[in-house]
Design a protein that fits this description.
The protein has 12 helices and 25 strands. By secondary structure, the protein is of the alpha+beta class. The protein has 2 domains: 162 residues, Glutaredoxin; 322 residues, no CATH class. The strands form 8 sheets. A 7-stranded mixed sheet has the order 8-7-9-10-23-22-19. The longest helix has 31 residues. The relative contact order is 0.11.
């Protein structure tokens, strides 16, 4: 009897080993991962899978989310990044490799500081985090990002979203949401045979290089080619320009210049209009206690109207606004103090479009409203708008600087969601469909291009504020980061908004769909944990012991019943 049970046990063990070995052999040949999460957080989008499947070169990713004393949130981000890169490596059939680098592992302080400085030069921004230790809290400098390398080139990826308006937990959640898009988008940029070109329009009093420097550096770091165009000197039509950026022109456009831009759009060119339709500048208060806000005629109303929007000659005033410094009497001495400035709205988004999803507010200075027209064939999406406590101020209008010290009447701010930035998508009709003269025909013939009365599917962005792309200068005329306010010391999302817009326009593979992902953080209810801590400790300690005891009693009873016969 004993031999029989022994032989039977050996057979079961041998069969089990055969099954385990067989499963391991099959799994080493055929890889299959089952994503049982509700939001499919470990499943890549179709566009990302296609990108990785078609990789014909090796990609290396160096991540700096490593260290022994990282905060809990950074550890979560590190683990999620590892999971994602493993999925990327599998879908690329090993073309993509990655490793995590611990900066603190560089023991020589000077070498470590030099390494960190190089990361900043490459475009990675450090973050100061509070780390809990035995002696309380200490500050730790971390670089929550990665460098993607291929073809002798490098692209920085800022993994952690630093969002002052969202809070730490929401920033972490958004970082997880955008992780796939950021990495996939950077891979697409670095493997492109020809990089997209962003050209800045010149010749109409646009912003100078000093006030565009930070955005120019950002575009360069993200592998965009940068150019400039003067319509009376350079060729716009039949060129390699992917996006034309019109940054705060102050002089009127001629009909010929508008015709060239119109035909550029008709032939597939993308345009970003950043327009100031009002003449108004805070620096003017240095010369007088009040200034007049007056309309500016750029001669663009008719062409924008044909495309589907109207940029008005007014000002958007908002109680949800930025602050400006004004000399105020404090304790008998005059010192600068920050006051809310309703002419500086903090524009927000209220939809889930990939360009602005979970984006921080965008700083606007003397912005205007946009009317969205009901013309067929063009889809309009309001990307940025005012808050629920705003109003429109017609111009001309006299503005007093001292007015900032007075509390505004909330009853006057009874409008909401006033459009400030609008995305246009569709088949744009040409302004010159019924105005195509022989002079225009000669212009096209000189550039070897034919007239087109309607565009194919195209995209365009209109923002009723030219300062949205303008970086400020410090006291030594050194450019500050785009969106950084030196008075409130907040970093607004101007740079992300513009960069997302450009990437959306040149994204032919629809990678931006990954930016619409929603990964939910299942967080513990801290109050409930505190109240029920003792109960669950008892359950976790006692219940397993009772279960083992119960199984032991059942097992012994069965053995007695079996062998006492």
């Amino acid at each position: 009897m004993t031999n029989h049970y022994f032989i039977q046990s050996i057979k079961i063990l041998a069969a089990s080993l055969v099954v385990v070995i067989g499963i391991n052999l099959v799994s080493s040949i055929v890889y299959k991962r089952f994503d049982l999460t509700e939001e499919k957080r470990y499943t890549l989008t179709a566009s990302t899978k296609k990108l990785l499947k078609n990789l014909d070169q090796n990609i290396e990713v160096e991540v700096y989310l490593e260290g022994s004393d990282l905060p809990a949130g950074i550890k979560v981000l590190r683990n999620e990044t590892k999971e994602l890169l493993q999925e990327f490596r599998t879908n690329s059939k090993g073309r993509l490799t990655y490793h995590f680098f611990d900066i603190e592992g560089i023991k020589n302080q000077k070498e470590r500081e030099t390494f960190q400085e190089n990361l900043v030069k490459k475009g990675l921004l450090p973050t100061n985090l509070e780390v809990k230790s035995a002696n309380g809290y200490t500050e730790k400098l971390v670089f929550p990002g990665a460098i993607i390398k291929a073809n002798g080139r490098e692209i920085p990826v800022q993994i952690l979203e630093n969002q002052f308006a969202q809070g730490a937990q929401s920033s972490l959640n958004n970082s997880l949401n955008f992780l796939e898009y950021k990495v996939a988008n950077s891979i697409q940029k670095i493997i492109r045979k020809t990089q997209p070109t962003v050209a800045f329009l010149q010749g109409h009093g646009e912003l100078d290089v000093a006030h565009l420097e930070d955005f120019l550096k950002t575009l360069h770091a993200q592998s965009f080619l940068i150019d400039k165009v003067e319509l009376d000197k350079d060729k716009l039509l039949n060129s390699d320009i992917d996006v034309l950026l019109v940054a705060k022109p102050t002089k009127s456009f001629t009909d010929v210049e508008k015709f060239l831009i119109d035909q550029y759009v008709m032939h597939g060119g993308k345009v970003i209009w950043l327009l100031d339709n009002i003449i108004c500048d805070l620096d003017s208060f240095k010369l007088a206690p009040s200034i007049y806000a007056v309309p500016r005629d750029l001669n663009l109303d008719d062409i924008l109207f044909r495309y589907g929007v109207r940029v008005n000659h007014n000002l958007v005033l908002d109680l949800y606004c930025n602050q400006i410094p004004i000399i105020a009497s404090i304790g008998g001495s005059n010192k600068p103090q920050l006051f809310p400035w309703v002419f500086y709205p903090m524009a927000i988004n209220k939809n889930n479009h990939p360009i602005v999803k979970n984006l921080d507010p965008v700083a606007v200075k003397f912005g205007s409203s946009i009317d969205v027209l009901n013309n067929k064939g063009v889809k309009k999406t309001v990307l940025l708008s005012s808050s629920d406590y705003s109003r429109i101020q017609p111009t001309p209008f006299q503005i007093y600087l001292e007015g900032a010290k007075q509390r505004p009447d909330p009853n006057l701010f009874n409008q909401k969601n006033i459009p400030i930035a609008v995305l246009l998508e569709g088949n744009f009709p040409s302004l010159y469909k019924n105005q195509f003269t022989s002079d225009y025909q000669q212009i096209l013939a000189a550039q070897q291009i034919s007239f087109q009365a309607e565009s194919k599917l195209n995209k365009m962005l209109v923002v009723a504020d030219g300062d949205v792309v303008k970086n400020e200068l410090d006291a030594n005329s050194v450019p500050l980061a785009l969106g950084y306010d030196k008075y409130s010391r907040k970093l607004f999302a101007n740079k992300d908004f513009l960069l997302n817009s450009i990437e959306y326009m040149v994204d032919d593979n629809n990678l931006i769909e990954a930016r619409n992902r929603e990964i939910k953080m299942r967080l513990l209810d801290k109050a409930k944990v505190l109240n029920e801590k003792g109960f669950w400790q008892v359950v976790n300690l006692v219940l397993p012991l009772l279960l083992i005891l119960l199984l032991g009693i059942i097992y012994n009873n069965r053995r007695k019943a079996k062998y006492t016969k």
